[in-house]
From TrEMBL:
Listed PANTHER family: AAA-TYPE ATPASE FAMILY PROTEIN / ANKYRIN REPEAT FAMILY PROTEIN, AAA-TYPE ATPASE FAMILY PROTEIN _ ANKYRIN REPEAT FAMILY PROTEIN
SMART domains to which the protein is assigned, alphabetical: AAA (SM00382)
Official protein name in the record: AAA+ ATPase domain-containing protein
Source species taxonomy: Bacteria, Bacillati, Cyanobacteriota, Cyanophyceae, Nostocales
SUPFAM superfamilies referenced in this protein's UniProt entry, alphabetically: P-loop containing nucleoside triphosphate hydrolases
Domain AAA+ ATPase: 263-403
């Protein structure tokens, strides 16, 4: 159930706006600009709104995306709730130097639940941070950039005097509030239904993806057969077989009532382009389904463009949408390293990662995230966030195809499309693939390179035979010869 959703496209909810020597508050370009201009240890400024009933719900979730623009790093800014007036409220704030505080202001006096604790998850300085407050029955959890930092009894931090909520700044700081979303659910399972219903109703907050269903009548034997039939990838195959054996034993132990190891299904595929990472991700989904770890085993395939929105709050909703569609299956993010762009301090990809990491933990039993990309970029990606390293501990390297493997792929394209090759074509192709492999760069296309040559070859073959097409038998109309591959000298 959506209680409150604000992306500051306009000011239909009548947030305070003003411009003065002490403070300026404005709705600007899809954010709420909050500039506190005074300085001093005991000086703060609040801006708030209200909602009648969410404090009474047994479960609710609050998510706020802040961006510190300028100002001091030694004091805080953040979210306030249970607000009666400027002397009575609760606050969850962070500072530019990596500290956080959870406190209550009661009749103008602060009482601290947590007083300026250091948190490595805070993005220090002038940058974007995601704060979350989640009530689950008798406990309230506090998250910073998807990392749980504190848990308190509900009666401590929800014994509210007022119904309002909003933002607070201590000392001289300028922030942007990009989004504020409050959802309420009767139990945790209903969160899924909320996300699909609400987000699918808005095209701008839907993720863009391709969905691959597991085959009907699939079996573990069929998956192993398909895996063995993949060209190359001997190392990856062995690692997947090892993973399958481990999961199979864990399933058996569970069925016998024995202890099992808490297993993360998330993994990373890294290697050069055109090496079949998407194909392997689909096999992983099927494997997890047949071993009883995922109910559907389908694959939701997306990339940066599919989950990054036009503004920060929109990005969070698109990631949520992708996750909800991937539940009971696999969320495959191709070229995932594009989510972390070194040259952009406040890139929306960081928010996407923060939301994704939270869901990878919350829903770890219901879906698997498979990230893929190029080797050097993915190494930087996995090191960019401690949460990634802790959640993705299986890394599968997929190497370049060897020349004979590239030839096997070409032959497979022929079989799949009703063509064949003669000896002269084999000789040309073998030489072409050996030269291409020896001269390869990090961007060598592997399977994509083979597909390009195959498509060019059948085009050239058509040019060769079209003039006497009616005189040819079935074999002659399907054969690719060395003559049809003369163009390959362009790749040498």
């Amino acid at each position: 159930m959506l209680i409150f959703e604000e992306h500051f496209q306009d000011n239909c909810r009548n947030w305070v706006t003003r411009s003065g020597v002490d403070c300026s508050l404005e709705i600007k370009a899809s954010h709420y600009s909050f500039d506190h201009k005074r300085t001093g240890d005991d000086i703060y400024w609040l801006s708030w709104n209200s909602c009648d009933f969410f404090y009474e719900l047994s479960n609710f979730h609050i998510s706020i995306v802040f961006e510190k623009v300028s100002g001091v790093d030694s004091f805080g800014y953040g979210f306030s709730w249970g607000l009666l007036d400027s002397s009575n409220f609760f606050e969850f704030i962070i500072s530019g130097n990596g500290l956080y505080r959870i406190a209550q202001c009661k009749n103008g006096t602060f009482e601290y639940f947590t007083n300026w604790e250091l948190c490595s998850s805070i993005q220090s300085g002038n940058t974007v941070n995601l704060l979350e407050v989640r009530r689950i029955e008798d406990n309230v959890e506090f998250y910073i950039n998807s990392t749980l930092v504190e848990t308190f009894a509900t009666e401590q931090v929800m014994d509210v005097l007022g119904k309002s909520f909003g933002f607070v700044i201590h000392d001289q700081i300028n922030i942007k509030v990009h989004s504020l979303i409050i959802t309420g659910v009767e139990d945790e399972k209903e969160t899924t239904n909320y996300n699909i219903d609400v987000k699918d109703s808005k095209p701008e907050t839907r993720a863009a993806f391709i969905e691959h269903e597991a085959p009907v009548g699939d079996t573990l034997l069929k998956i192993i057969t398909d895996l063995n039939e993949l060209v190359g990838h001997s190392r990856t195959k062995q690692e997947l077989f090892s993973l399958a054996n481990f999961l199979k034993v864990q399933t058996e132990r569970k069925q016998r009532g024995m202890k099992t190891v808490d297993t993360s299904l998330h993994l990373m595929l890294y290697g050069p382009p055109g090496t079949g990472k998407t194909t392997i991700a689909r096999l992983v989904g099927r494997l997890y389904k047949q071993l009883g770890f995922l109910e559907r085993g389908h694959v939701i395939e997306t990339d940066r463009a599919g989950i990054i929105g036009g503004y920060i709050g929109q990005t969070a909703l698109r990631v949520e949408n992708a996750v909800q569609h991937a539940l009971d299956g696999v969320l495959f993010i191709d070229e995932a390293h594009a989510l972390v762009q070194e040259d952009t301090a406040n890139d929306y990809g960081k928010e996407a990662l923060q939301v994704l990491l939270k869901r990878m933990e919350d829903q770890r039993a219901r879906f698997a995230v498979v990230v893929a990309g190029y080797p050097s970029e993915m190494e930087k990606f996995i090191e960019s966030n401690p949460g990634l390293k802790s959640r993705i501990n299986r890394l599968f390297y997929i190497d370049h195809y060897m020349p004979n493997e590239l030839l096997s792929i070409f032959k497979k394209f022929c079989i799949d499309n009703g063509y064949s090759i003669d000896l002269s074509a084999c000789i040309v192709l073998q030489r072409t693939f050996e030269i291409a492999y020896n001269q390869r760069s990090n961007n060598f296309g592997n399977g994509r390179f083979v597909r390009t040559i195959f498509e060019r070859s059948i085009e050239q073959q058509a040019n060769r035979i079209v003039s006497n097409l009616e005189e040819l038998d079935d074999k002659e109309i399907c054969i690719i010869t060395g003559e049809d591959l003369r163009f390959t000298h362009q790749f040498n």
